[in-house]
Write a structure and sequence with these properties.
Blueprint lengths: L3 H8 L3 E6 L2 H9 L4 E4 L12 H10 L3 E5 L11 H17 L3 E4 L10 H10 L4 E4 L9 H11 L3 E4 L10 H10 L5 E4 L5 H8 L6 E4 L2 E5 L20 E5 L1 H15 L1
Parallel strand pairs: 1-2, 1-8, 2-3, 3-4, 4-5, 5-6, 6-7
Antiparallel strand pairs: 9-10
Helix pairs in contact: 4-5, 8-9
Protein backbone atom coordinates (compact mmCIF):
# COMPACT_ATOMS: atom_id res chain seq x y z
CA UNK A 1 0.00 0.00 0.00
CA UNK A 2 1.15 3.58 -0.67
CA UNK A 3 0.40 5.52 2.50
CA UNK A 4 0.73 9.22 3.26
CA UNK A 5 3.41 8.32 5.76
CA UNK A 6 5.45 6.68 3.04
CA UNK A 7 5.12 9.66 0.72
CA UNK A 8 6.18 11.99 3.56
CA UNK A 9 9.24 9.81 4.16
CA UNK A 10 10.26 10.19 0.51
CA UNK A 11 9.59 13.91 0.22
CA UNK A 12 10.18 15.55 3.59
CA UNK A 13 13.37 17.66 3.83
CA UNK A 14 13.65 16.66 7.48
CA UNK A 15 13.54 13.45 9.52
CA UNK A 16 11.00 12.81 12.26
CA UNK A 17 11.88 9.32 13.46
CA UNK A 18 9.63 7.82 16.10
CA UNK A 19 10.80 4.91 18.23
CA UNK A 20 8.04 2.37 18.83
CA UNK A 21 7.86 -1.04 20.47
CA UNK A 22 4.33 -2.12 19.51
CA UNK A 23 2.05 -2.05 16.48
CA UNK A 24 -0.34 0.46 18.05
CA UNK A 25 2.43 3.01 18.64
CA UNK A 26 3.96 2.43 15.21
CA UNK A 27 0.69 3.04 13.38
CA UNK A 28 -0.14 6.08 15.53
CA UNK A 29 3.23 7.56 14.61
CA UNK A 30 2.82 6.78 10.92
CA UNK A 31 -0.65 8.29 10.79
CA UNK A 32 0.42 11.53 12.46
CA UNK A 33 3.51 12.56 10.54
CA UNK A 34 6.49 10.39 11.41
CA UNK A 35 8.77 10.02 8.40
CA UNK A 36 10.38 6.85 9.75
CA UNK A 37 10.14 4.37 12.61
CA UNK A 38 12.86 2.97 14.79
CA UNK A 39 11.37 -0.37 15.76
CA UNK A 40 12.47 -1.99 18.99
CA UNK A 41 11.25 -3.97 21.97
CA UNK A 42 11.33 -2.89 25.61
CA UNK A 43 11.55 0.88 25.21
CA UNK A 44 11.26 1.20 28.98
CA UNK A 45 14.85 -0.12 29.28
CA UNK A 46 16.21 1.80 26.31
CA UNK A 47 15.18 -0.66 23.61
CA UNK A 48 16.23 -4.13 22.53
CA UNK A 49 15.86 -6.10 19.29
CA UNK A 50 12.18 -6.48 18.31
CA UNK A 51 10.56 -9.70 17.17
CA UNK A 52 10.31 -10.51 13.49
CA UNK A 53 6.55 -10.93 13.85
CA UNK A 54 6.20 -7.40 15.23
CA UNK A 55 8.04 -6.11 12.15
CA UNK A 56 5.79 -8.15 9.88
CA UNK A 57 2.60 -6.97 11.59
CA UNK A 58 3.54 -3.31 11.15
CA UNK A 59 4.71 -3.84 7.58
CA UNK A 60 1.35 -5.46 6.75
CA UNK A 61 -0.43 -2.30 7.93
CA UNK A 62 1.88 0.51 6.75
CA UNK A 63 4.58 1.24 4.18
CA UNK A 64 6.44 3.70 6.41
CA UNK A 65 10.22 3.18 6.43
CA UNK A 66 11.29 1.00 9.36
CA UNK A 67 14.74 1.04 10.89
CA UNK A 68 15.26 -1.92 13.22
CA UNK A 69 17.24 -1.64 16.45
CA UNK A 70 19.65 -4.53 16.99
CA UNK A 71 20.53 -4.75 20.68
CA UNK A 72 20.54 -8.17 22.35
CA UNK A 73 20.18 -7.01 25.94
CA UNK A 74 19.96 -4.15 28.40
CA UNK A 75 23.26 -2.62 29.51
CA UNK A 76 26.53 -1.66 27.87
CA UNK A 77 27.57 -1.94 24.22
CA UNK A 78 30.60 -4.21 24.71
CA UNK A 79 29.54 -7.48 23.09
CA UNK A 80 30.78 -11.04 23.26
CA UNK A 81 31.38 -13.18 20.19
CA UNK A 82 28.13 -15.04 20.89
CA UNK A 83 26.17 -11.79 21.08
CA UNK A 84 27.76 -10.59 17.84
CA UNK A 85 26.83 -13.82 16.07
CA UNK A 86 23.21 -13.46 17.18
CA UNK A 87 23.09 -9.81 16.12
CA UNK A 88 24.50 -10.56 12.67
CA UNK A 89 21.92 -13.28 12.05
CA UNK A 90 19.13 -10.95 13.20
CA UNK A 91 20.42 -8.20 10.93
CA UNK A 92 20.43 -10.57 7.95
CA UNK A 93 16.86 -11.62 8.75
CA UNK A 94 15.48 -8.08 8.98
CA UNK A 95 17.37 -7.05 5.85
CA UNK A 96 15.76 -9.93 3.94
CA UNK A 97 12.35 -8.90 5.30
CA UNK A 98 12.73 -5.43 3.81
CA UNK A 99 13.88 -3.22 6.67
CA UNK A 100 14.86 0.23 5.45
CA UNK A 101 17.66 0.48 7.99
CA UNK A 102 19.54 -1.23 10.78
CA UNK A 103 20.43 0.55 14.03
CA UNK A 104 23.62 -0.75 15.66
CA UNK A 105 26.60 0.13 17.82
CA UNK A 106 29.54 -1.66 19.44
CA UNK A 107 32.38 -0.43 21.65
CA UNK A 108 35.66 -1.77 22.96
CA UNK A 109 36.04 -1.76 26.73
CA UNK A 110 38.15 1.41 26.50
CA UNK A 111 35.29 3.35 24.91
CA UNK A 112 36.60 3.27 21.34
CA UNK A 113 34.48 2.11 18.43
CA UNK A 114 34.71 -1.66 17.89
CA UNK A 115 35.44 -1.37 14.19
CA UNK A 116 35.75 -5.13 13.46
CA UNK A 117 32.35 -5.87 15.00
CA UNK A 118 30.80 -2.87 13.24
CA UNK A 119 32.17 -4.12 9.91
CA UNK A 120 30.60 -7.55 10.44
CA UNK A 121 27.21 -6.08 11.27
CA UNK A 122 27.30 -3.63 8.37
CA UNK A 123 28.20 -6.45 5.99
CA UNK A 124 25.22 -8.45 7.30
CA UNK A 125 22.94 -5.47 6.60
CA UNK A 126 23.55 -5.51 2.86
CA UNK A 127 22.00 -2.43 1.27
CA UNK A 128 20.19 -1.25 4.41
CA UNK A 129 20.67 2.24 5.76
CA UNK A 130 22.97 2.17 8.82
CA UNK A 131 22.45 4.19 11.99
CA UNK A 132 25.03 4.22 14.79
CA UNK A 133 22.89 4.40 17.91
CA UNK A 134 23.59 5.99 21.28
CA UNK A 135 26.58 3.80 21.93
CA UNK A 136 28.04 6.95 20.36
CA UNK A 137 27.01 8.91 23.44
CA UNK A 138 29.15 6.78 25.74
CA UNK A 139 32.20 6.52 23.47
CA UNK A 140 35.49 8.10 24.50
CA UNK A 141 36.11 10.43 21.54
CA UNK A 142 32.97 11.37 19.60
CA UNK A 143 34.72 13.21 16.79
CA UNK A 144 37.10 10.32 16.14
CA UNK A 145 34.19 7.87 16.21
CA UNK A 146 32.18 10.06 13.82
CA UNK A 147 35.02 9.94 11.28
CA UNK A 148 35.43 6.19 11.75
CA UNK A 149 31.70 5.67 11.32
CA UNK A 150 31.70 7.68 8.10
CA UNK A 151 34.54 5.53 6.81
CA UNK A 152 32.51 2.41 7.55
CA UNK A 153 29.54 3.71 5.56
CA UNK A 154 27.33 4.73 8.49
CA UNK A 155 24.59 7.05 7.24
CA UNK A 156 23.27 8.44 10.54
CA UNK A 157 24.44 8.96 14.12
CA UNK A 158 21.74 9.04 16.79
CA UNK A 159 23.00 11.20 19.64
CA UNK A 160 22.11 13.47 22.54
CA UNK A 161 25.50 15.17 22.35
CA UNK A 162 26.93 12.83 24.99
CA UNK A 163 24.60 14.16 27.68
CA UNK A 164 21.52 12.75 29.41
CA UNK A 165 19.26 14.90 27.21
CA UNK A 166 19.67 16.67 23.90
CA UNK A 167 19.13 20.07 25.51
CA UNK A 168 22.02 19.44 27.88
CA UNK A 169 24.11 18.28 24.92
CA UNK A 170 23.18 21.06 22.50
CA UNK A 171 26.68 22.59 22.35
CA UNK A 172 28.14 19.23 21.31
CA UNK A 173 25.25 18.65 18.90
CA UNK A 174 25.94 21.94 17.16
CA UNK A 175 29.59 20.96 16.72
CA UNK A 176 28.65 17.54 15.39
CA UNK A 177 26.25 19.02 12.84
CA UNK A 178 28.90 21.50 11.71
CA UNK A 179 31.64 18.85 11.44
CA UNK A 180 29.64 15.89 10.15
CA UNK A 181 31.12 14.38 6.98
CA UNK A 182 29.16 14.99 3.80
CA UNK A 183 26.17 12.68 3.56
CA UNK A 184 26.02 11.85 7.26
CA UNK A 185 22.94 12.87 9.27
CA UNK A 186 23.11 13.82 12.94
CA UNK A 187 19.84 12.49 14.40
CA UNK A 188 19.02 14.28 17.65
CA UNK A 189 17.48 12.15 20.38
CA UNK A 190 16.88 11.91 24.14
CA UNK A 191 14.23 14.14 25.66
CA UNK A 192 12.89 15.36 22.32
CA UNK A 193 9.48 17.03 22.51
CA UNK A 194 7.86 19.61 20.24
CA UNK A 195 9.05 22.41 22.53
CA UNK A 196 12.58 21.00 22.57
CA UNK A 197 12.55 20.88 18.77
CA UNK A 198 11.62 24.58 18.74
CA UNK A 199 14.52 25.39 21.07
CA UNK A 200 17.03 23.33 19.12
CA UNK A 201 15.95 24.84 15.79
CA UNK A 202 16.50 28.34 17.19
CA UNK A 203 20.11 27.48 17.95
CA UNK A 204 21.35 25.31 15.06
CA UNK A 205 20.40 24.07 11.57
CA UNK A 206 19.10 20.72 12.83
CA UNK A 207 16.92 18.69 10.46
CA UNK A 208 16.80 15.23 12.00
CA UNK A 209 14.99 14.31 15.22
CA UNK A 210 14.23 11.06 17.07
CA UNK A 211 11.46 10.86 19.66
CA UNK A 212 8.95 8.51 21.25
CA UNK A 213 6.18 11.03 21.97
CA UNK A 214 4.88 8.61 24.55
CA UNK A 215 1.95 8.88 26.89
CA UNK A 216 1.10 6.57 29.78
CA UNK A 217 -2.15 4.63 29.65
CA UNK A 218 -3.75 2.89 32.58
CA UNK A 219 -3.96 -0.88 32.25
CA UNK A 220 -7.33 -2.40 31.36
CA UNK A 221 -6.87 -4.88 34.20
CA UNK A 222 -9.51 -4.44 36.91
CA UNK A 223 -8.07 -7.18 39.15
CA UNK A 224 -4.62 -6.19 40.41
CA UNK A 225 -2.30 -7.80 42.93
CA UNK A 226 -0.14 -4.96 44.29
CA UNK A 227 2.20 -7.35 46.13
CA UNK A 228 3.83 -8.79 42.98
CA UNK A 229 6.29 -6.98 40.71
CA UNK A 230 7.34 -8.78 37.51
CA UNK A 231 10.12 -6.49 36.33
CA UNK A 232 12.39 -3.68 37.41
CA UNK A 233 11.55 -2.01 40.73
CA UNK A 234 9.54 1.15 40.25
CA UNK A 235 8.01 0.08 36.92
CA UNK A 236 4.34 -0.70 37.25
CA UNK A 237 2.75 -3.62 35.42
CA UNK A 238 -0.39 -1.51 35.23
CA UNK A 239 0.98 1.32 33.10
CA UNK A 240 1.12 0.97 29.31
CA UNK A 241 3.35 3.25 27.22
CA UNK A 242 2.02 4.34 23.83
CA UNK A 243 2.91 6.94 21.22
CA UNK A 244 0.72 10.05 21.42
CA UNK A 245 -0.31 11.02 17.90
CA UNK A 246 -1.00 14.62 18.89
CA UNK A 247 2.60 15.05 20.04
CA UNK A 248 3.96 13.61 16.81
CA UNK A 249 1.66 15.81 14.76
CA UNK A 250 2.83 18.93 16.62
CA UNK A 251 6.47 17.99 16.08
CA UNK A 252 5.80 17.48 12.37
CA UNK A 253 4.17 20.90 12.07
CA UNK A 254 7.14 22.60 13.71
CA UNK A 255 9.60 20.89 11.35
CA UNK A 256 7.46 21.62 8.32
CA UNK A 257 7.25 25.30 9.20
CA UNK A 258 11.05 25.44 9.40
CA UNK A 259 12.17 23.26 6.51
CA UNK A 260 9.34 22.97 3.98
Amino acid sequence: METNAKRDSQEAPYTLEVCADCTESALEAAENGATRLELCANLVIGGTTPSLELFREIRAESDIDINVLIRPRFGDFHYTDHELAIMCREIETFAREGAHGIVIGSLHSDGSLHVPQMKEMIAAAGNCHITLHRAFDVCRDPFEVMEQAAGLGVDTILTSGQEASCLAGRDMLKQLIEKAPEGMDILIGAGVTPEVIRQILSQMPAKHFHMSGKKVLDSAMTWRNPKVNMGLPGISEFEIYRTDGAVIREAKEILESKWS
